[in-house]
Amino acid sequence: MIVSKHAAELCALLVNDTFGELPSRVIEALLQRGPSRMPQLFERTGLHPPQVRHGLAVLIQHNLAYYNVNKDTKVTTYEANVHSCYNILRIGRIVDLVGQQYGEAEQEVVRNLFSLGYVQIADLAQAFGGHGGGAAAPATNGNGEAHTEVGMNGNSNGNGVVSNKPGSTIQSVFHLHEVIGRLIQFEILEVVDAESFANPETVYAEIEQEYTKKATTAKSLKAKEDLGREKAGMLRAARDRGKVLKRKLDAEDGFPSSKKRKLVNGEANGTPAPSSTKRRVLDSSTVLRINYEKCLVDLRNDRLGRFAADVIGHTTSEVYRALLRLSTTKLSRCKEDSKIDGAYSDMFDDGAKDVTITTLEILESLDPSINLATDIGRVGKSSVDPHIGDHLLQMAVISSTEDAELGLQGGPVKPSRNGHITDDELYSDDEPAPIKASNGQNGSSNGHVKFENVPSTGEQRVELLRRHLFLCESKHRFARYCGTLGEGQWAIDFDVVMEALRQVELDSIIEQMTGRRGLRLTRILRQFGRLDEKVVADKALMKKPTLQGKMAELQKSGFVDVQEVPRDNNRVANRTMFFWYYDADRTCRQLPDRLYKMMLRCLQVLEVERHKVKDILEFVHRTDVKGKEEEVMTPEYYNKYSKHLELERKLLGHTMKLDDIVAVLRDY
To answer: What is the pLDDT of residue 94?
Structure first.
């Protein structure tokens, strides 16, 4: 896989920060030179053979490198797993998300699996002390240093290592097997076999090559059709090799329903799930690892939930999160593979396509503590401030004037006959008026609109839930109403809502880099397509010299481009038409590399700052100092330590925000 310079440097730095310098030098050679054999790694890294083997062992243990053995020559080739290297950034976020959605016990198992890499169930039970009372055994990095947890979630110490909490939520070995079984059924964990260490792209290429040879010998059209279906089945089997145990567990007790999912979530609040009469015992020799593809699905759900909260309110976003959880129960990955999921997809009915969820199912899975009467309500005339019409009219005139200066479409709000907006035009007693308020409270933020929250009954709760769901049918198309069963059926078109989210992110980036005028010009080009300079100037209400300067700035930033169409064969400038255009797909492909560079700079600055206070961090990490730094340290050194922690939080927070944008543009 070809990666950019900044992506390779970022992955090498993440491996170095988490596992040490030795694995970092090996992965850096693999990223720069591509697939390599052992003698080539000796030469490119300048390390001794035992050191290279030790570094490769750490990388393979944590799924950061692939290896493939040639069947004919028996030569082993090693290759970097770029996606797993980059996902080191997201380990802390994944662990937190598992704790929120599945429970504290599941969170602890996932945390230890991130620390240990792929591991047998027996070894994992031993890491928990054999009876669930001990903490996880530390994993070692390339320098022989012990790490109890990896990741960068903001709680890390000076070396990027997160300390493990004393005690454990795993009560017994049987409890551990139950937790692992649930995580396997939810696809957070997958089974590892000998074929799991090869690059999936290489495996798919070998299968396609084999069936291409068979297709040359097939004579009839039916024989070629059968070979195509057989190849699609082989590709699907190669990809879903880690789901063998999941299918077995699903066959035994069925996939957890929404009701069981709520009980599992109850463990996070200190309410253990009811013990089953039949204890589940898994094969102790089964090897497990984290399934990043399913984790990305949960991360996407969280991002869409935050997007919905920004657009349509907090309470409606909680309803939307419940719909997302139910819709993605059987969804294994964010993006489909055209080689596997494209042709002959009718052969495989995995239940992940065209998923519809009823309103009653959403109500059953929704947290009962959520007050559905907030962020939406019915307001009568008596509850509206009589002077709010003047205020709204004034704000509408100011907004329309600013939009006219910027060349945006839309006009002022049409006033009533006497020049004021009447209460009848604002709200009616016959139709509900959705109102968003800050901090999840009903009424406007300035106190003009007031109404009381009355505890709702069961029927009222269903009706309020339906109103929230209909709010999701906004311009961003968060959800789609598609049936009448169960008080209404709902579906999510992920392509549509993700396209809206990408557009919002791109607009934000363009506005920050080129200003309000640059955003206005890109919106015009996005709406009308390729336009001549004169047409763009007319629509943007800008003079031609000003327009040319701004378009040159946008072109330099990579957001727009120009197509030159000469009127004759002379190709003279004054006889050439210049058509400007905006390509969103190309922008989404180019922006991540710029974001990689920004994240790399943040982590490099953090590394330098840690080196400056190296002595203080070494002192703070002592077992007799942890938890009482302010008491032990002098005011001078404690102030330096506090300033370093603040700077570290800012740099890591900025890095995670950049990763959020990368995920929207590339992964979701």
So the answer is: 94
